[in-house]
Batch of 2 targets.
Target 1
Amino acid sequence: MDAEAAARAYGPAFDAAVAADERIEPRDWMPDAYRATLVRQIAQHAHSEIIGMQPEANWITRAPSLRRKAILMAKVQDEAGHGLYLYSAAETLGASRDDLLDKLHSGRQRYSSIFNYPTLTWADVGAIGWLVDGAAITNQVPLCRCSYGPYARAMVRVCKEESFHQRQGYELLLELSRGTEAQHAMAQDAVDRWWWPSLMMFGPPDDESAHSAQSMEWKIKRHSNDELRQRFVDICVPQAEALGLTLPDPDLKWNEEQGRWDFGAIDWDEFKAVLKGDGPCNEQRLTQRRTAHEEGAWVREAAAAHAARKQARTATEREGAMAR
Ligand code: FAQ
Protein backbone atom coordinates (compact mmCIF):
# COMPACT_ATOMS: atom_id res chain seq x y z
CA MET A 1 0.00 0.00 0.00
CA ASP A 2 1.47 3.38 -0.91
CA ALA A 3 1.69 6.24 1.60
CA GLU A 4 -1.41 8.05 0.34
CA ALA A 5 -3.55 4.93 0.41
CA ALA A 6 -2.27 4.13 3.92
CA ALA A 7 -3.17 7.65 5.09
CA ARG A 8 -6.68 7.23 3.66
CA ALA A 9 -7.09 3.82 5.25
CA TYR A 10 -5.56 4.44 8.68
CA GLY A 11 -5.63 8.24 9.08
CA PRO A 12 -9.18 8.36 10.50
CA ALA A 13 -8.31 5.82 13.23
CA PHE A 14 -5.22 7.88 14.15
CA ASP A 15 -7.26 11.11 14.30
CA ALA A 16 -9.95 9.42 16.38
CA ALA A 17 -7.40 8.00 18.83
CA VAL A 18 -5.80 11.44 19.31
CA ALA A 19 -9.21 13.09 19.71
CA ALA A 20 -10.23 10.49 22.32
CA ASP A 21 -6.97 11.04 24.29
CA GLU A 22 -5.84 7.49 23.57
CA ARG A 23 -2.16 6.69 23.20
CA ILE A 24 -0.45 6.12 19.86
CA GLU A 25 1.90 3.14 20.17
CA PRO A 26 4.99 2.26 18.06
CA ARG A 27 3.21 -0.26 15.81
CA ASP A 28 0.22 1.98 15.12
CA TRP A 29 0.03 3.83 11.84
CA MET A 30 0.94 7.51 12.22
CA PRO A 31 1.46 10.39 9.78
CA ASP A 32 5.09 10.79 8.66
CA ALA A 33 5.10 14.38 9.93
CA TYR A 34 3.90 13.24 13.40
CA ARG A 35 6.74 10.72 13.53
CA ALA A 36 9.29 13.33 12.33
CA THR A 37 8.12 15.90 14.90
CA LEU A 38 8.40 13.37 17.71
CA VAL A 39 11.87 12.27 16.62
CA ARG A 40 12.96 15.93 16.47
CA GLN A 41 11.58 16.80 19.90
CA ILE A 42 12.58 13.57 21.67
CA ALA A 43 16.10 13.68 20.19
CA GLN A 44 16.52 17.31 21.23
CA HIS A 45 15.28 16.38 24.68
CA ALA A 46 17.66 13.38 24.93
CA HIS A 47 20.61 15.48 23.76
CA SER A 48 19.72 18.11 26.39
CA GLU A 49 19.83 15.50 29.14
CA ILE A 50 23.30 14.25 28.25
CA ILE A 51 24.82 17.64 27.44
CA GLY A 52 23.10 18.90 30.59
CA MET A 53 25.35 16.63 32.65
CA GLN A 54 28.36 18.82 31.89
CA PRO A 55 27.68 22.10 33.73
CA GLU A 56 26.97 20.35 37.03
CA ALA A 57 29.54 17.56 36.66
CA ASN A 58 32.03 20.41 36.59
CA TRP A 59 31.40 20.80 40.36
CA ILE A 60 31.49 17.15 41.52
CA THR A 61 35.15 17.28 42.56
CA ARG A 62 34.62 20.62 44.30
CA ALA A 63 31.39 19.89 46.21
CA PRO A 64 31.77 21.33 49.73
CA SER A 65 30.89 18.12 51.61
CA LEU A 66 30.61 14.35 51.08
CA ARG A 67 26.80 14.64 51.36
CA ARG A 68 26.64 17.29 48.64
CA LYS A 69 29.04 15.30 46.45
CA ALA A 70 26.94 12.12 46.75
CA ILE A 71 23.75 14.04 45.93
CA LEU A 72 25.32 15.75 42.92
CA MET A 73 26.77 12.51 41.56
CA ALA A 74 23.36 10.85 41.85
CA LYS A 75 21.71 13.78 40.07
CA VAL A 76 24.18 13.82 37.19
CA GLN A 77 23.77 10.04 36.79
CA ASP A 78 19.99 10.50 36.72
CA GLU A 79 20.38 12.90 33.79
CA ALA A 80 22.36 10.24 31.90
CA GLY A 81 19.54 7.79 32.62
CA HIS A 82 16.96 10.25 31.28
CA GLY A 83 18.99 10.54 28.08
CA LEU A 84 18.93 6.76 27.73
CA TYR A 85 15.14 6.45 28.20
CA LEU A 86 14.65 9.19 25.65
CA TYR A 87 16.99 7.69 23.03
CA SER A 88 15.09 4.42 23.53
CA ALA A 89 11.79 6.26 23.00
CA ALA A 90 13.19 7.75 19.76
CA GLU A 91 14.26 4.25 18.65
CA THR A 92 10.64 3.05 18.95
CA LEU A 93 9.91 5.52 16.12
CA GLY A 94 12.55 3.93 13.87
CA ALA A 95 15.35 6.40 14.64
CA SER A 96 18.85 5.02 15.07
CA ARG A 97 20.75 6.09 18.17
CA ASP A 98 24.05 6.30 16.25
CA ASP A 99 22.44 8.57 13.70
CA LEU A 100 20.95 10.84 16.40
CA LEU A 101 24.30 11.14 18.16
CA ASP A 102 25.94 11.87 14.84
CA LYS A 103 23.46 14.69 14.27
CA LEU A 104 24.15 16.11 17.74
CA HIS A 105 27.91 15.96 17.25
CA SER A 106 27.74 17.61 13.83
CA GLY A 107 25.36 20.35 15.02
CA ARG A 108 22.44 19.13 12.87
CA GLN A 109 20.20 18.59 15.92
CA ARG A 110 19.76 20.91 18.85
CA TYR A 111 19.96 20.64 22.62
CA SER A 112 18.47 23.08 25.10
CA SER A 113 19.87 26.61 25.04
CA ILE A 114 20.23 26.57 28.84
CA PHE A 115 23.26 24.28 28.82
CA ASN A 116 25.39 26.82 26.98
CA TYR A 117 25.83 28.91 30.11
CA PRO A 118 28.77 28.42 32.52
CA THR A 119 28.61 27.25 36.14
CA LEU A 120 30.85 29.82 37.80
CA THR A 121 30.31 29.10 41.51
CA TRP A 122 28.97 26.35 43.76
CA ALA A 123 25.69 28.28 44.06
CA ASP A 124 25.09 27.62 40.35
CA VAL A 125 24.44 23.98 41.25
CA GLY A 126 21.60 25.19 43.47
CA ALA A 127 20.28 27.62 40.84
CA ILE A 128 20.28 24.87 38.19
CA GLY A 129 18.36 22.53 40.49
CA TRP A 130 15.81 25.13 41.50
CA LEU A 131 15.34 26.97 38.20
CA VAL A 132 16.50 24.67 35.38
CA ASP A 133 15.02 21.48 36.82
CA GLY A 134 12.01 23.52 37.93
CA ALA A 135 11.47 24.76 34.36
CA ALA A 136 12.06 21.24 33.04
CA ILE A 137 9.34 19.83 35.34
CA THR A 138 6.88 22.58 34.39
CA ASN A 139 7.43 21.67 30.73
CA GLN A 140 7.53 17.90 31.24
CA VAL A 141 4.57 17.22 33.54
CA PRO A 142 2.15 17.90 30.64
CA LEU A 143 4.34 15.66 28.45
CA CYS A 144 3.29 12.73 30.70
CA ARG A 145 -0.02 13.08 28.80
CA CYS A 146 1.63 13.29 25.38
CA SER A 147 -0.24 11.31 22.72
CA TYR A 148 2.79 9.11 21.96
CA GLY A 149 2.87 6.29 24.54
CA PRO A 150 6.60 5.60 24.96
CA TYR A 151 7.46 9.30 25.34
CA ALA A 152 4.61 9.88 27.82
CA ARG A 153 5.63 6.86 29.93
CA ALA A 154 9.31 7.87 29.96
CA MET A 155 8.24 11.30 31.24
CA VAL A 156 6.48 9.85 34.28
CA ARG A 157 9.72 8.51 35.71
CA VAL A 158 11.79 11.46 34.53
CA CYS A 159 9.45 13.90 36.30
CA LYS A 160 9.69 11.99 39.59
CA GLU A 161 13.47 12.26 39.46
CA GLU A 162 13.42 15.90 38.32
CA SER A 163 11.27 16.70 41.32
CA PHE A 164 14.03 15.42 43.62
CA HIS A 165 16.55 17.47 41.62
CA GLN A 166 14.48 20.62 42.01
CA ARG A 167 14.17 20.15 45.76
CA GLN A 168 17.87 19.53 46.27
CA GLY A 169 18.63 22.77 44.38
CA TYR A 170 16.12 24.68 46.45
CA GLU A 171 17.52 23.28 49.69
CA LEU A 172 21.09 24.08 48.64
CA LEU A 173 20.15 27.69 47.82
CA LEU A 174 18.19 28.05 51.06
CA GLU A 175 21.25 27.00 53.06
CA LEU A 176 23.45 29.48 51.20
CA SER A 177 20.87 32.23 51.42
CA ARG A 178 20.65 31.81 55.23
CA GLY A 179 24.44 31.45 55.55
CA THR A 180 27.13 34.11 55.73
CA GLU A 181 26.89 37.36 53.83
CA ALA A 182 29.27 36.01 51.19
CA GLN A 183 27.20 32.83 50.78
CA HIS A 184 23.99 34.84 50.45
CA ALA A 185 25.63 37.05 47.80
CA MET A 186 26.83 33.96 45.93
CA ALA A 187 23.28 32.54 45.86
CA GLN A 188 21.84 35.86 44.67
CA ASP A 189 24.46 36.15 41.93
CA ALA A 190 23.66 32.64 40.67
CA VAL A 191 19.92 33.40 40.55
CA ASP A 192 20.64 36.68 38.75
CA ARG A 193 22.54 34.82 36.03
CA TRP A 194 20.21 31.79 35.62
CA TRP A 195 16.79 33.45 35.79
CA TRP A 196 16.46 34.81 32.24
CA PRO A 197 18.07 31.81 30.49
CA SER A 198 15.61 29.59 32.44
CA LEU A 199 12.68 31.53 31.00
CA MET A 200 14.14 30.97 27.51
CA MET A 201 14.05 27.19 28.01
CA PHE A 202 10.32 27.24 27.19
CA GLY A 203 11.11 28.24 23.62
CA PRO A 204 10.24 31.27 21.50
CA PRO A 205 7.06 33.30 22.12
CA ASP A 206 3.91 31.66 20.81
CA ASP A 207 3.65 33.89 17.75
CA GLU A 208 7.15 32.79 16.68
CA SER A 209 6.88 29.13 17.63
CA ALA A 210 7.02 27.21 14.35
CA HIS A 211 5.86 23.85 15.71
CA SER A 212 3.46 24.63 18.57
CA ALA A 213 0.14 24.77 16.70
CA GLN A 214 0.60 21.42 14.96
CA SER A 215 2.15 19.76 18.03
CA MET A 216 -0.80 20.90 20.15
CA GLU A 217 -3.27 19.60 17.58
CA TRP A 218 -1.54 16.22 17.76
CA LYS A 219 -1.52 16.47 21.60
CA ILE A 220 2.25 16.09 21.71
CA LYS A 221 2.34 19.47 23.44
CA ARG A 222 -0.57 20.23 25.78
CA HIS A 223 0.23 23.89 26.44
CA SER A 224 1.93 26.63 24.50
CA ASN A 225 5.44 27.91 25.27
CA ASP A 226 4.11 31.18 26.75
CA GLU A 227 1.50 29.40 28.91
CA LEU A 228 4.16 27.20 30.50
CA ARG A 229 6.57 30.12 30.92
CA GLN A 230 3.86 32.05 32.77
CA ARG A 231 3.09 29.04 34.97
CA PHE A 232 6.80 28.80 35.86
CA VAL A 233 7.06 32.51 36.78
CA ASP A 234 3.97 32.21 38.99
CA ILE A 235 5.52 29.23 40.81
CA CYS A 236 8.93 30.88 41.25
CA VAL A 237 7.96 34.29 42.63
CA PRO A 238 6.73 33.04 46.05
CA GLN A 239 9.55 30.48 46.17
CA ALA A 240 12.14 33.25 45.66
CA GLU A 241 10.54 35.17 48.50
CA ALA A 242 10.72 32.13 50.79
CA LEU A 243 14.38 31.73 49.81
CA GLY A 244 15.10 35.33 50.75
CA LEU A 245 16.37 36.02 47.22
CA THR A 246 15.16 38.44 44.57
CA LEU A 247 14.44 37.71 40.92
CA PRO A 248 16.40 40.06 38.62
CA ASP A 249 13.37 41.65 36.99
CA PRO A 250 12.28 45.17 38.01
CA ASP A 251 9.08 44.72 35.97
CA LEU A 252 7.77 41.76 37.99
CA LYS A 253 4.34 42.85 39.19
CA TRP A 254 1.27 41.05 40.48
CA ASN A 255 -1.60 41.41 38.02
CA GLU A 256 -4.73 41.28 40.15
CA GLU A 257 -7.10 41.14 37.20
CA GLN A 258 -5.37 38.22 35.50
CA GLY A 259 -4.29 36.50 38.73
CA ARG A 260 -0.69 36.15 37.57
CA TRP A 261 2.74 37.79 37.75
CA ASP A 262 3.55 40.12 34.85
CA PHE A 263 7.22 40.03 33.96
CA GLY A 264 9.71 42.02 31.89
CA ALA A 265 10.84 41.56 28.30
CA ILE A 266 13.00 38.54 27.48
CA ASP A 267 16.11 39.22 25.41
CA TRP A 268 15.22 37.08 22.39
CA ASP A 269 18.34 38.25 20.54
CA GLU A 270 20.39 36.46 23.19
CA PHE A 271 18.27 33.31 22.75
CA LYS A 272 18.74 33.39 18.96
CA ALA A 273 22.49 33.90 19.33
CA VAL A 274 22.74 30.88 21.65
CA LEU A 275 20.71 28.76 19.19
CA LYS A 276 23.04 29.86 16.40
CA GLY A 277 26.01 28.55 18.38
CA ASP A 278 27.22 31.85 19.82
CA GLY A 279 26.41 31.26 23.50
CA PRO A 280 29.17 31.42 26.13
CA CYS A 281 29.78 27.64 26.18
CA ASN A 282 28.39 26.16 22.92
CA GLU A 283 31.79 25.20 21.57
CA GLN A 284 33.07 23.82 24.88
CA ARG A 285 29.95 21.65 25.38
CA LEU A 286 30.06 20.09 21.91
CA THR A 287 33.81 19.53 21.99
CA GLN A 288 33.57 17.79 25.35
CA ARG A 289 30.65 15.66 24.13
CA ARG A 290 32.53 14.56 20.98
CA THR A 291 35.62 13.73 23.04
CA ALA A 292 33.56 11.71 25.54
CA HIS A 293 31.98 9.81 22.65
CA GLU A 294 35.34 9.01 21.06
CA GLU A 295 36.90 8.01 24.36
CA GLY A 296 33.91 5.77 25.10
CA ALA A 297 34.27 3.80 21.85
CA TRP A 298 36.05 0.89 23.60
CA VAL A 299 33.21 0.61 26.14
CA ARG A 300 30.62 0.34 23.36
CA GLU A 301 32.75 -2.25 21.53
CA ALA A 302 33.25 -4.29 24.70
CA ALA A 303 29.52 -4.13 25.54
CA ALA A 304 28.60 -5.23 21.99
CA ALA A 305 31.13 -8.12 22.10
CA HIS A 306 29.79 -9.20 25.51
CA ALA A 307 26.18 -9.09 24.26
CA ALA A 308 27.08 -11.10 21.14
CA ARG A 309 28.89 -13.74 23.21
CA LYS A 310 25.99 -13.98 25.65
CA GLN A 311 23.52 -14.35 22.79
CA ALA A 312 25.65 -17.10 21.17
CA ARG A 313 25.91 -18.93 24.54
CA THR A 314 22.14 -18.74 25.06
CA ALA A 315 21.55 -20.09 21.53
CA THR A 316 23.95 -23.02 22.13
CA GLU A 317 22.32 -23.83 25.46
CA ARG A 318 18.87 -23.71 23.84
CA GLU A 319 19.99 -26.07 21.07
CA GLY A 320 21.49 -28.41 23.69
CA ALA A 321 18.23 -28.42 25.65
CA MET A 322 16.23 -29.20 22.51
CA ALA A 323 18.58 -32.08 21.59
CA ARG A 324 18.09 -33.70 25.02
N1 FAQ B 1 16.77 25.53 23.23
O1 FAQ B 1 8.47 25.79 17.45
P1 FAQ B 1 9.22 25.77 18.74
C1 FAQ B 1 16.53 18.98 30.73
C2 FAQ B 1 13.97 25.46 18.96
S1 FAQ B 1 15.22 19.94 30.27
C3 FAQ B 1 17.13 25.16 21.99
O2 FAQ B 1 8.56 26.41 19.91
P2 FAQ B 1 8.88 23.14 19.88
C4 FAQ B 1 16.57 18.46 32.15
C5 FAQ B 1 13.06 24.33 18.53
O3 FAQ B 1 13.71 23.07 18.62
C6 FAQ B 1 15.63 20.69 28.70
N2 FAQ B 1 16.27 25.16 20.94
O4 FAQ B 1 9.64 24.26 19.06
C7 FAQ B 1 17.86 18.73 32.80
C8 FAQ B 1 12.77 24.72 17.11
O5 FAQ B 1 13.92 24.46 16.31
P3 FAQ B 1 13.88 23.56 14.96
C9 FAQ B 1 15.12 19.91 27.53
C10 FAQ B 1 15.01 25.53 21.22
O6 FAQ B 1 9.66 21.90 19.75
C11 FAQ B 1 17.92 19.63 33.85
C12 FAQ B 1 12.67 26.23 17.20
O7 FAQ B 1 13.41 26.60 18.35
N3 FAQ B 1 13.69 19.75 27.56
O8 FAQ B 1 17.32 18.77 29.92
C13 FAQ B 1 14.57 25.90 22.49
O9 FAQ B 1 7.45 23.10 19.53
C14 FAQ B 1 19.12 19.90 34.49
C15 FAQ B 1 11.24 26.74 17.27
O10 FAQ B 1 10.64 26.44 18.55
C16 FAQ B 1 13.01 19.41 26.44
O11 FAQ B 1 13.58 19.27 25.37
C17 FAQ B 1 15.52 25.89 23.54
N4 FAQ B 1 15.20 26.26 24.78
O12 FAQ B 1 8.96 23.66 21.40
C18 FAQ B 1 19.03 18.07 32.42
C19 FAQ B 1 11.53 19.23 26.63
N5 FAQ B 1 13.26 26.22 22.41
O13 FAQ B 1 13.83 22.15 15.44
C20 FAQ B 1 20.25 18.35 33.09
C21 FAQ B 1 10.83 18.71 25.39
C22 FAQ B 1 12.88 26.06 21.13
O14 FAQ B 1 12.65 23.95 14.21
C23 FAQ B 1 20.28 19.28 34.13
N6 FAQ B 1 10.75 19.70 24.37
N7 FAQ B 1 13.94 25.66 20.41
O15 FAQ B 1 15.16 23.88 14.27
C24 FAQ B 1 9.74 20.60 24.26
O16 FAQ B 1 8.84 20.65 25.07
C25 FAQ B 1 9.76 21.52 23.06
O17 FAQ B 1 10.63 20.97 22.10
C26 FAQ B 1 10.18 22.98 23.38
C27 FAQ B 1 10.20 23.78 22.06
C28 FAQ B 1 9.16 23.62 24.32
C29 FAQ B 1 11.57 23.05 24.01
Note: The beta strands are 253-255, 260-262.
Target 2
Amino acid sequence: LTEPFLAGRSVLITAGPTREFWDPVRFLSNRSSGKMGYALAAAVAEAGAQVTLISGPVALDVPPGVHRIQVESAQQMCDATLAQVAVMDILIACAAVADYRPTKQAAQKIKKTDQGLTLALERTTDILEQLANLADKPFIVGFAAETERLEINAYRKLKLKGLDMIAANWVQGGQGFEADDNALTVLWPGGKVELPRTSKTQLARALIKLIAEYYHAKGSA
Ligand code: C5P
Protein backbone atom coordinates (compact mmCIF):
# COMPACT_ATOMS: atom_id res chain seq x y z
CA LEU A 1 0.00 0.00 0.00
CA THR A 2 1.17 3.51 -0.81
CA GLU A 3 1.91 5.99 1.99
CA PRO A 4 -0.55 8.93 2.33
CA PHE A 5 2.04 11.49 1.17
CA LEU A 6 -0.70 13.81 -0.16
CA ALA A 7 -2.98 13.57 2.89
CA GLY A 8 -5.02 16.73 3.46
CA ARG A 9 -4.40 18.07 -0.07
CA SER A 10 -6.99 18.74 -2.77
CA VAL A 11 -6.06 17.70 -6.28
CA LEU A 12 -7.91 18.50 -9.52
CA ILE A 13 -7.34 16.30 -12.56
CA THR A 14 -8.68 16.78 -16.10
CA ALA A 15 -8.91 13.67 -18.28
CA GLY A 16 -10.16 12.29 -21.57
CA PRO A 17 -11.07 13.94 -24.86
CA THR A 18 -13.60 16.69 -25.51
CA ARG A 19 -16.36 16.65 -28.13
CA GLU A 20 -17.05 19.65 -30.31
CA PHE A 21 -20.46 19.25 -31.94
CA TRP A 22 -21.35 20.72 -35.36
CA ASP A 23 -24.90 19.33 -35.36
CA PRO A 24 -26.94 17.36 -32.78
CA VAL A 25 -25.38 13.99 -33.73
CA ARG A 26 -21.88 14.83 -35.09
CA PHE A 27 -18.76 16.03 -33.38
CA LEU A 28 -14.98 16.46 -33.71
CA SER A 29 -12.86 14.69 -31.10
CA ASN A 30 -9.55 12.83 -30.67
CA ARG A 31 -8.11 9.45 -29.69
CA SER A 32 -7.75 10.06 -25.93
CA SER A 33 -9.14 7.12 -23.89
CA GLY A 34 -8.80 8.85 -20.52
CA LYS A 35 -6.78 5.91 -19.13
CA MET A 36 -3.80 8.01 -18.02
CA GLY A 37 -5.96 10.62 -16.27
CA TYR A 38 -8.05 7.97 -14.50
CA ALA A 39 -4.88 6.11 -13.41
CA LEU A 40 -3.57 9.42 -12.01
CA ALA A 41 -6.85 9.99 -10.15
CA ALA A 42 -6.58 6.51 -8.60
CA ALA A 43 -2.92 7.09 -7.63
CA VAL A 44 -3.69 10.49 -6.06
CA ALA A 45 -6.58 8.96 -4.05
CA GLU A 46 -4.21 6.19 -2.88
CA ALA A 47 -1.80 8.92 -1.75
CA GLY A 48 -4.49 10.25 0.60
CA ALA A 49 -5.65 13.40 -1.24
CA GLN A 50 -9.19 14.55 -2.07
CA VAL A 51 -9.52 14.07 -5.82
CA THR A 52 -11.84 15.85 -8.24
CA LEU A 53 -11.76 14.46 -11.77
CA ILE A 54 -13.15 16.60 -14.59
CA SER A 55 -13.70 14.12 -17.37
CA GLY A 56 -14.64 14.20 -21.02
CA PRO A 57 -16.68 11.27 -22.42
CA VAL A 58 -14.80 8.00 -21.77
CA ALA A 59 -15.73 4.35 -21.11
CA LEU A 60 -14.04 4.06 -17.70
CA ASP A 61 -15.30 3.51 -14.15
CA VAL A 62 -14.72 6.21 -11.53
CA PRO A 63 -11.79 5.09 -9.29
CA PRO A 64 -12.69 4.54 -5.60
CA GLY A 65 -12.81 7.72 -3.54
CA VAL A 66 -12.74 10.03 -6.59
CA HIS A 67 -15.37 12.74 -7.22
CA ARG A 68 -16.08 12.94 -10.97
CA ILE A 69 -17.57 15.86 -12.88
CA GLN A 70 -18.54 14.90 -16.44
CA VAL A 71 -18.26 17.40 -19.30
CA GLU A 72 -18.35 17.23 -23.10
CA SER A 73 -16.92 20.32 -24.76
CA ALA A 74 -13.66 22.23 -24.25
CA GLN A 75 -15.70 25.21 -23.02
CA GLN A 76 -17.48 23.06 -20.41
CA MET A 77 -14.13 21.64 -19.28
CA CYS A 78 -12.73 25.19 -19.02
CA ASP A 79 -15.75 26.43 -17.01
CA ALA A 80 -15.62 23.43 -14.64
CA THR A 81 -11.85 23.85 -14.13
CA LEU A 82 -12.17 27.59 -13.40
CA ALA A 83 -15.01 26.87 -10.94
CA GLN A 84 -12.88 24.35 -9.00
CA VAL A 85 -9.32 25.63 -9.21
CA ALA A 86 -9.38 28.22 -6.39
CA VAL A 87 -9.62 25.57 -3.66
CA MET A 88 -7.05 23.19 -5.18
CA ASP A 89 -3.45 22.58 -4.10
CA ILE A 90 -2.45 20.77 -7.28
CA LEU A 91 -3.90 20.70 -10.82
CA ILE A 92 -2.92 17.93 -13.23
CA ALA A 93 -4.15 18.75 -16.75
CA CYS A 94 -4.13 15.39 -18.50
CA ALA A 95 -7.14 15.98 -20.77
CA ALA A 96 -6.73 16.08 -24.54
CA VAL A 97 -8.75 19.27 -24.95
CA ALA A 98 -9.81 20.13 -28.51
CA ASP A 99 -7.84 23.08 -29.88
CA TYR A 100 -10.49 23.88 -32.51
CA ARG A 101 -14.28 23.70 -32.60
CA PRO A 102 -16.80 24.27 -35.40
CA THR A 103 -17.75 27.97 -35.58
CA LYS A 104 -21.43 26.97 -35.84
CA GLN A 105 -23.51 24.21 -34.28
CA ALA A 106 -26.62 23.47 -36.38
CA ALA A 107 -29.87 23.04 -34.41
CA GLN A 108 -30.99 20.17 -36.69
CA LYS A 109 -29.07 17.27 -38.25
CA ILE A 110 -27.39 18.51 -41.42
CA LYS A 111 -28.74 16.73 -44.52
CA LYS A 112 -26.25 15.29 -46.97
CA THR A 113 -26.17 16.55 -50.54
CA ASP A 114 -24.14 15.60 -53.60
CA GLN A 115 -21.74 18.42 -52.80
CA GLY A 116 -18.73 18.34 -50.48
CA LEU A 117 -18.93 20.02 -47.10
CA THR A 118 -16.48 22.45 -45.52
CA LEU A 119 -16.46 22.96 -41.76
CA ALA A 120 -15.18 26.31 -40.49
CA LEU A 121 -13.26 25.99 -37.21
CA GLU A 122 -12.28 28.46 -34.50
CA ARG A 123 -9.89 28.18 -31.54
CA THR A 124 -11.13 26.96 -28.19
CA THR A 125 -9.92 28.62 -24.98
CA ASP A 126 -6.62 27.21 -23.69
CA ILE A 127 -7.46 26.32 -20.09
CA LEU A 128 -3.88 26.37 -18.82
CA GLU A 129 -3.13 29.71 -20.48
CA GLN A 130 -6.22 31.13 -18.70
CA LEU A 131 -4.78 30.00 -15.37
CA ALA A 132 -1.27 31.33 -16.02
CA ASN A 133 -2.17 34.80 -14.69
CA LEU A 134 -4.15 33.73 -11.62
CA ALA A 135 -2.94 35.37 -8.40
CA ASP A 136 -3.17 32.28 -6.22
CA LYS A 137 -2.32 29.38 -8.53
CA PRO A 138 -2.10 25.74 -7.48
CA PHE A 139 0.96 23.67 -8.39
CA ILE A 140 0.21 23.00 -12.08
CA VAL A 141 1.28 19.95 -14.06
CA GLY A 142 0.57 19.88 -17.81
CA PHE A 143 0.84 17.11 -20.36
CA ALA A 144 2.25 17.20 -23.87
CA ALA A 145 1.57 14.50 -26.46
CA GLU A 146 3.99 14.94 -29.34
CA THR A 147 4.79 13.26 -32.64
CA GLU A 148 8.12 15.08 -33.07
CA ARG A 149 10.77 17.01 -31.08
CA LEU A 150 9.31 15.83 -27.76
CA GLU A 151 11.54 17.70 -25.32
CA ILE A 152 11.79 20.97 -27.24
CA ASN A 153 8.01 21.18 -27.68
CA ALA A 154 7.31 20.17 -24.07
CA TYR A 155 9.82 22.69 -22.71
CA ARG A 156 8.20 25.44 -24.80
CA LYS A 157 4.76 24.55 -23.33
CA LEU A 158 6.18 24.52 -19.78
CA LYS A 159 7.33 28.13 -20.27
CA LEU A 160 4.41 29.42 -22.37
CA LYS A 161 1.74 28.05 -20.05
CA GLY A 162 3.59 28.96 -16.82
CA LEU A 163 3.59 25.37 -15.55
CA ASP A 164 5.48 23.93 -12.60
CA MET A 165 6.00 20.62 -14.38
CA ILE A 166 5.17 18.94 -17.69
CA ALA A 167 4.87 15.26 -18.56
CA ALA A 168 5.59 14.56 -22.22
CA ASN A 169 4.93 11.43 -24.19
CA TRP A 170 5.32 10.22 -27.76
CA VAL A 171 2.18 9.40 -29.71
CA GLN A 172 3.66 7.12 -32.34
CA GLY A 173 3.90 3.39 -33.02
CA GLY A 174 1.09 2.32 -30.67
CA GLN A 175 2.41 4.39 -27.78
CA GLY A 176 0.41 7.03 -25.93
CA PHE A 177 -3.29 7.30 -26.84
CA GLU A 178 -5.54 4.29 -26.17
CA ALA A 179 -2.68 1.97 -25.05
CA ASP A 180 -2.53 0.43 -21.57
CA ASP A 181 1.12 1.37 -21.07
CA ASN A 182 3.21 4.44 -21.74
CA ALA A 183 6.53 6.17 -21.01
CA LEU A 184 6.97 9.80 -19.91
CA THR A 185 9.66 12.44 -20.01
CA VAL A 186 9.00 14.75 -17.06
CA LEU A 187 10.43 18.29 -17.20
CA TRP A 188 10.41 21.22 -14.77
CA PRO A 189 12.48 24.40 -14.65
CA GLY A 190 15.97 23.04 -14.05
CA GLY A 191 15.29 19.32 -14.07
CA LYS A 192 14.26 16.22 -15.98
CA VAL A 193 13.37 12.59 -15.21
CA GLU A 194 12.62 9.77 -17.65
CA LEU A 195 9.90 7.40 -16.45
CA PRO A 196 10.40 4.23 -18.53
CA ARG A 197 7.63 2.33 -20.29
CA THR A 198 5.27 0.49 -17.93
CA SER A 199 1.53 0.13 -17.26
CA LYS A 200 -0.37 3.41 -16.90
CA THR A 201 -1.21 2.32 -13.30
CA GLN A 202 2.49 2.04 -12.36
CA LEU A 203 3.44 5.10 -14.39
CA ALA A 204 0.76 7.16 -12.64
CA ARG A 205 2.10 6.13 -9.21
CA ALA A 206 5.65 7.10 -10.22
CA LEU A 207 4.50 10.46 -11.61
CA ILE A 208 2.43 11.26 -8.51
CA LYS A 209 5.48 10.55 -6.29
CA LEU A 210 7.53 12.96 -8.41
CA ILE A 211 4.80 15.63 -8.36
CA ALA A 212 4.41 15.33 -4.57
CA GLU A 213 8.19 15.62 -4.09
CA TYR A 214 8.41 18.88 -6.09
CA TYR A 215 5.14 20.22 -4.71
CA HIS A 216 6.45 19.78 -1.14
CA ALA A 217 9.89 21.15 -2.11
CA LYS A 218 8.29 24.26 -3.64
CA GLY A 219 6.13 24.79 -0.54
CA SER A 220 9.13 24.70 1.79
CA ALA A 221 11.36 26.82 -0.49
O1 C5P B 1 -0.67 22.93 -26.35
P1 C5P B 1 -1.09 21.55 -26.03
O2 C5P B 1 -2.56 21.30 -26.24
O3 C5P B 1 -0.27 20.46 -26.63
O4 C5P B 1 -0.81 21.44 -24.45
C1 C5P B 1 -1.20 20.33 -23.75
C2 C5P B 1 -1.55 20.72 -22.33
O5 C5P B 1 -2.43 21.84 -22.33
C3 C5P B 1 -2.29 19.62 -21.62
O6 C5P B 1 -1.95 19.69 -20.26
C4 C5P B 1 -3.75 19.99 -21.88
O7 C5P B 1 -4.62 19.43 -20.92
C5 C5P B 1 -3.70 21.50 -21.83
N1 C5P B 1 -4.71 22.18 -22.65
C6 C5P B 1 -5.60 23.04 -22.06
N2 C5P B 1 -6.56 23.69 -22.80
C7 C5P B 1 -6.62 23.51 -24.14
C8 C5P B 1 -5.68 22.65 -24.78
C9 C5P B 1 -4.76 22.00 -24.00
O8 C5P B 1 -5.56 23.21 -20.83
N3 C5P B 1 -7.55 24.15 -24.83
Note: Helices lie at 35-46, 74-84, 127-131, 150-160, 200-220.
